Amino acid sequence: MRPLLRALLFLIWPLGLLTPALTAAQDDASAPAVLIADELFIANDRELIARGNVEAFQGTTRITASEIRYDRSTGALTITGPITMEDGEGITVLASAAELDGTLRTGLLRGARMVLNQQLQLAAVQIQRVNGRYSQLYKTAVTSCQICEDGSPPLWQIRARRVVHDKEERQLYFDGAQFLIRNIPVFYIPQLRLPDPTVDRATGFLFPSFRQNTEFGLGIKIPYFINIAPDRDLTVTPYIAPGTRTLELRYRQAFRTGRIEFNGAISRDDERPGDTRGYVFADGSFDLENDFKLTFDIEVTTDDSYLTQYDYSGKDRLDSAITISRARRDEYISGGLIAFKSLREEDVNAELPTLVADGIYEARYFPQRLGGELRLALNAHSHYRYSDDDILGRDVSRASAEADWLRSWTLGAGLRADVTLGLTTDLFNVTQDSSVPQTQSQISPRGAVALRYPMVRSGAGGVTQFLEPIFQVGWVGGDQIDVPNEESTRVEFDGGNLTSLSRFPEPDRRERGRTIALGVNWARFDPDGFDTSLTLGQVLRQDADPAFTETSGLGGTASDYLVAGQISGQNGLTLTARTLFDEDFDFAKAEIRGDYFGQRTTLGGSYLWLQSDPGEDRDQSIAEIAVDGSYRVDKHWTANADWRYDISISRASTAGVGVTYQNECVSVGFSIDRRYSTSSSLEPSTTLGLTIGLRGFSARKGTETYTRTCG
Fold first, then answer.
1. Torsions phi, psi of 5, nearest 5?
2. For residues 705 and 145, what is the distance between their CA atoms, to the nearest angstrom?
3. Which residues contact 469 (CB under 8 A, 6 or more apart)?
4. Tens digits of per-residue pLDDT, 353-380?
5. CA 20 to 30 Å from 693, out of 103, 209, 260, 499?
6. For residues 123 and 388, what is the distance between their CA atoms, to the nearest angstrom?
7. Each residue of 653-711: pLDDT tens digit?
């Protein structure tokens, strides 16, 4: 029946023309309208009546109704509901009756409800459409909460005498707005403007957060977002509390080849009366020509305790840096400058290397006649202290040139042989230190032969096991020159440098003499997801190196035993551990980290133990436990907690708990955080935080949908 009616409509209703031109003109306000129905007839020679599954189209607007009457003399449409109007761009209007013009862009809808982006609903006595752009709603209730048929009020709503929705600007304008929780009025705003749910970025206030702090008292943060342009924005957040007046700022800008972001704050508070306090953190990255990349970060604060007191950062050493680098398949170039500032009480910044410059060039070649791989590297470093005192103000610069040739062979029965030959030249310049010569140089030849015997075994269920014994003989020539140890004060012995010819992190120290490295790598891979790996290792050397600290695990002629492993399961459990111990099972250090990611639970924890070591400025052993996790109680409630405990002093460092509630229309978070650390400028403090967000006035992040059950 419908094809016949379409043909009849095409012939007799001058308002609608089913032609290919309609498709091209759908977005034009003057595009012709189309009407489809089960039943169609003409009354009084001037009124066209369509009944039964009626659909009307004009441009991007589509209306479904039980009956539509078209008056040819006036060009008006009288529509009988229930009516559903889909206006494109996520706008849906439901009404009981309507009177519209022939373009469906102007008219009146009664008993109407507008739904924006399937998030925000606006119920009104009537809606007046103007030119397809504006919708004026009278005696309106606005909410993103589920409306139950039993008449119970939503969790929150905004009632207003009039609401105007600007489709092009995607804004909502309220006259006489009243905010209610359930049916209880909370506050009244004569004029209010809010973005509709389709807007990602709009200038205006964001939802405030409340903060109760033992140092500053009960305060509120009211962020104001300024959409400067599509590629930049500014957020201004006043923080008002009895003990502080703070203004927080965040600026972001995107460029065609990069981005920048600045975060900062300025404060006047009772902690330091009369002083202006603040901080600036900034970072950015840019793609330059010829594959180069520029990155930078800035970290500045007015005093040592500001960041911690205001919970902006837990860092106790700040670094501002700028770096230009390029990474290609066979080449790496990097140059950078770093400025350090310590916030620790025991540090004197003038006596620390606060300005550091580094330059690196690395390249590799594959000579056909010689075979193998040839690696060349140039490395330059300099650090500067502001102090002019002898030794305490020592400044050091160095330059290194390295060349290495590497080649591997596969021998009989699958035995792998790796050969390394290399030569390094180092030049040092030390100033403001009368205890050592100013200029020194050294040449360090080196070589190593490593044998590996990788073995693989497949078992039932597709399980694969991998076993690889390792044996390496190495030698580094030359003598250690008398330069201060400025960069290699902390040495880590792990599976990554088991077969390195020098396990010092920087060239100001190098291992010398003959060494033997012994190790075993074992791994088990299960298709069901339960994977395990284990590394065992030890280093034997001709002569002990006094530059290795006691807890480095590399002191003496025989290093400590290295044991490192990982377990990961399909159920979301991951366990990683590493330790060093000697033949008497005296442990130098140990660390373990475990994580569990379940459907409703996430849990992470770590344990760290470091033995006392004066060589690393650690007079007492350090032991610490850290735990963090969350539990999803149900679809709406989530609880989280974190705890850090210092075993060495038998006191917690930090602790926090929080709970979050989310449904289709509101997000509420409450947290309690306690900081136990003390210093001359910092006292223990407790912070209570409350954040409330109303869904429906901004683009919802994520794909999860919350629905309230009525009944």
1. -70, -40
2. 12
3. 452, 453, 519, 520
4. 999 999 999 999 999 988 999 999 999 9
5. 260
6. 75
7. 999 999 999 888 888 999 999 988 766 667 788 999 999 888 776 544 444 555 555 65
